[in-house]
Write a structure and sequence with these properties.
This protein has two helices and no strands. The chain is largely without helices or strands. It has a single domain, classed as Pectate Lyase C-like. It is globular, with a radius of gyration of 15 Å.
Length: 161
């Protein structure tokens, strides 16, 4: 399924997308409130600024996904794989992270207030710089963040011939 097909079906009222394969999909700034993406493959997906409030994301694979500035409040991420995911400035207020894999996930500046199921073991290797469970979310310029992040990613690679 393509991003366009998913959005068209979502706009038509469909919410059940269990087990869907959306590896590397681009869904930036999309409103997907209440969607069921349980067991979905979203590895490397770009969901920057997406609204996934109240979504069922149980056992979904978000490894390496870009969830920068995403709204995940009251989402269920039980047993989700967030390994190497970027949740910078994401709002995870009141979401469930029971048994989620958060290894090397980047939660810099994320709102983690009233998160359930979060344990020290789950956060092993996760980046929590400036993550504040009581912070008020601000809406920075997503384009500026995207540009800075792209520069960071590009500068991290070296060319070999």
């Amino acid at each position: 399924m393509t991003a366009e097909e998913l959005l068209q079906q979502y706009q038509s009222g469909e919410r059940d997308f269990r087990g869907i394969k959306l590896k590397g999909v681009f869904l930036r700034d999309q409103c997907l409130r209440g969607i069921d993406l349980s067991c979905a493959d979203l590895r490397g997906a770009s969901l920057m600024g997406a609204d996934l409030s109240g979504a069922n994301l149980k056992r979904a694979d978000f490894s390496g996904a870009f969830l920068i500035l995403a709204q995940l409040n009251q989402a269920d991420l039980t047993q989700a794989n967030l390994t190497n995911a970027f949740l910078i400035l994401a709002n995870l207020q009141q979401c469930c992270l029971t048994q989620a894999n958060l290894a090397r996930a980047n939660f810099t500046g994320a709102n983690l207030s009233k998160v359930t199921g979060l344990t020290e073991g789950l956060l092993s290797g996760a980046v929590l710089a400036s993550a504040n469970p009581s912070q008020k979310m601000k809406t920075p310029n997503l384009d500026a963040i995207s540009k800075k992040f792209s520069e960071l990613v590009v500068s991290s690679f070296t060319y070999r011939s």
